[in-house]
Amino acid sequence: MEIYTLTPNPVHTISKLIFGDSWDDLRHFLPGKPVILVTDSTVYRLYESYFTSYPCVITEPGENNKQLENVQFILNQLLEFGADRSSLLLAIGGGVVGDMGGLAASLYMRGISFGYVPTTLLAMTDASIGGKTAVNLGTWKNIIGTFTQPEFVYILPQFLATQSDRDFCSGMAEIIKHAFIGIPEAISYIRESHQEIWSRKSETLFSLIKQSVLYKSAVVEQDEKELGLRAILNFGHTFGHAIEEEGRYTHGESVALGMMLAARISEIHCGLSPAVTHELKSLLQRFSLPVEEFPSSDQLMHNIRKDKKKSGNHIRFVYLTSPGHPRVELSSFELLESYLHKILPI
Ligand SMILES: NC(=O)c1ccc[n+]([C@@H]2O[C@H](COP(=O)([O-])OP(=O)(O)OC[C@H]3O[C@@H](n4cnc5c(N)ncnc54)[C@H](O)[C@@H]3O)[C@@H](O)[C@H]2O)c1
Ligand SMILES: [Zn+2]
User: Tens digits of per-residue pLDDT, 37-50?
Assistant: First the structure.
């Protein structure tokens, strides 16, 4: 077992990141206070025996259910189970459960303790780190939320054995993103161990997740509220969100396509070597991620103009100058559109 203590600024909340060996060891991290579990029905069905020791709130799975009504459902259940300010809410599930559980914990009686056991690759490497919680408002993603650091995150790669291939590969997109923006040595590691990753070999997943998660933690520690540095984590996400909005691809698949566009644009904007774009493409393809089926540039620009992160006619866009060297620049929509016209169709 390995334990890291994270100290995100500026609120100085302490959060423990635990790489666990077994489900049973989790109990060492449960304080002597009342625990209430939150999960979704899929995870509950798959791991029913894990949920017998504490009262459990079971939500419906899926992004469509990441809505305020379901947070209210969790809050009602907390009340029914007699949770008080000393209780700990332990969310066990993918990013949807983590987001809703974290938000409910931050709201219930003005905030109770929160722990998280992520059960998907995306949740282990991305959603569990950073303290962002949110639900969607209608179709608007992540509009209602808080910054709430969990007291601990318990990562147990054995959960990944039951994850669908499509969801698993979507998680790989964020891991590949971390490698290109901040852990260049992980690029060759992923390339060389891709068979073991595919077969979900525990030790390989363990080191892969560890590299990625510690990288994201280090970035978040320096900039919890995304005032500057943290924006680099949005590499591939400006176009990624615009693609995701079309409804055809998962988040990870959309980010894969978004990274391909960002890399091609970076070749023009800041001299990224085409060999890097090629390496990115081949790595994404190894995990069955899409790399060239883009919406039209008109459709992309239409969606980007609605991005909640825009400021006026500009948006902070993450370019890549070389592996490990992202660069964030406020870029006009006109500039991005002119780049798209140069590179599409790829
Ligand atoms: N808070 C953050 O910083 C942050 C970061 C990235 C993503 N997110 C959010 O995370 C969500 C996506 O997360 P996700 O991909 O984990 O989706 P998810 O939670 O919807 O899980 C995907 C599906 O897998 C099922 N599942 C979960 N664990 C499983 C397991 N071990 N075996 C089999 N099936 C399992 C779930 O029931 C669900 O049907 C999005 O809502 C996104 O906005 C949040
Ligand atoms: Zn993402």
Answer: 999 999 999 999 99
Same-domain status, 331 and 197: yes
Do 228 and 94 sit in the same domain of this protein? no
Ligand 1 probe mutation, 64, 120, 202, most atoms within 8 A of CB: 120
> What is the pTM (predicted TM-score) of this model?
0.91
Catalytic residue among 178, 251, 269, 281: 251
Q: Domain check: are 68 and 145 in the same one?
A: yes
Nearest to 104 by CA among 87, 121, 119, 117: 87
Q: Using an 8 Å Cβ cutoff, are 266 and 272 in contact?
A: yes
pLDDT (0 to 100) of residue 9: 45
| Containing structural domain, residue 294 | 165-343
331: helix, coil or strand? strand
Q: Is 110 a catalytic residue?
A: yes
**141: CA distance to ligand 1 center in Å?**
14
For the ranges 24-28, 43-47, 208-212, 303-307, which has the lowest average pLDDT? 303-307
DSSP letters spanning 31-48: -SS-EEEEEEHHHHHHTG
